[in-house]
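Trying the structure run again after the queue cleared.
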Amino acid sequence: MIRDMLHDYARNDIEPHAHDYNESGEYPESIIKELGGLGLFGMMVPEEYGGSNAGAVSYSLALQEIAYSCASVAVTLSVTNLTTDPLMKFASEEQKRRFLFPLASGEYLGAFALTEPGAGSNPSEIRTQAVKKGKNYIINGSKQFITNGSHAGIFILIARTSKDKNEFSAFIVPAESRGLRIGRKEKKMGLRASDTVEVILEDCAVPENCLIGRRGMGIRIALSALDSGRIGIASQSTGMIKACLDEALRYAGERRQFNKPIIRHQSIQNMISDIATEYEAAAMLAWSAASLKDSGMKFTKEASIAKLFASEAVNRCAYRALQVFGGYGYISDNKVERIYRDARVTTIYEGTSEVQRMVIARELQQG
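Done. Tokens:
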């Protein structure tokens, strides 16, 4: 039912506007508000905190349908889950009641502030510092490539809490906190309708009750959130692969060369068959990881496998789909041109393909 509802909504209410939003770089505020009204931001939040508790499999299906029409909207939804997930697992009861309700309802978005100019794949390089002073933590530093940053109500932020050792902690930082400001908005190759900014913290004071979990748990909290986030990126990639398949099939049936539709040429059939095969594999891997999460089982390895395969597959499939279109695929009015650009970042954010392979190998060694 969720898949069917989102299928119709995405095709009727997102698809017609996706090109214009991505062409102009405009943030699709009205669509995001509608998604909040539909309960999409609370799909994995328990009912007692304002969510629907629909589960990770349903959430994966929803992301696939939305990404089919607009990957920018899908990643906006996916990143908010990076905020709700650590709150559900590690926050105090007071923190859950204060922050999960507005996140689940879509009253405001969440943002996950981990990456810095000098700290990407290796979080131990984080330089943002949080120093305890009285009943507050004073935070100084900057965060880079923060999705939803300009529109977030809260940030889940990882900062160093000791100068003498690698101690990192996680904080809830409300967007209205004094000393927090939004820096440069990034001009991106793809996902142009999603918001990606620099976040600057200058003597930003947050109350001590905004510490998530215990002091020193920051990296553990971040890695746990990224496990769930990787299911989201795998699902986003899978939806984009399905769009590649449908676009290539449609065009190959319409376009004629050498006195017949190009779908009747074996070379075109081979490319479309490869897209279909990779779609089925990506979908199954995403659902497998999501079902493990729903079952309460460990899913770190499976999430990384799904993210690795689906993100690399969507890049291959976007290439094939554009090739099917030939010169028309290279024109910016064409949907496959947008997918081709949007696909590129999927092997980079929330852990590069190289990092996914490190995670998979580590999990295999640990048994």
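The first strand starts at residue 109 and ends at 113. Worth checking whether this holds up in the mutant runs.
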